Amino acid sequence: MSVLVFAEHDNESLKDATLSAVTAAAKLGGEVHVLVAGANARAAAEQAARIEGVSKVLLADGPAYDHLLAENVAPLLVALMDSYDALVAPATTNGKNLLPRVAAKLDVAQISDIIAIDAPDTFQRPIYGG
Fold it and tell me: pTM of this prediction?
């Protein structure tokens, strides 16, 4: 299984949520690749390359990705998903904006707000009661 992780960053450094997403992706098994999309984001990509367990970093660098707008990043992810079995993103505002669009374009189910991965096909999610 190959897993693509969408990196949250500020074009200079990764956010902590990305490290959690990489840890989760590793539990799915197989190779873990990280996508850093941004403008002048080479420093963030270099930091991603130093994360234990990451075997490859993809850098999409250009002005269209400067603010990580879902309208620009979602088509990039959709195009990349032919080579991956799973996509993992942090449960941040960007991740929650981006992944539903990608799932809809790929016609797949999205599993959101995961708090633990027990097996590649078994996840834990919080349940809220009223």
Answer: 0.93
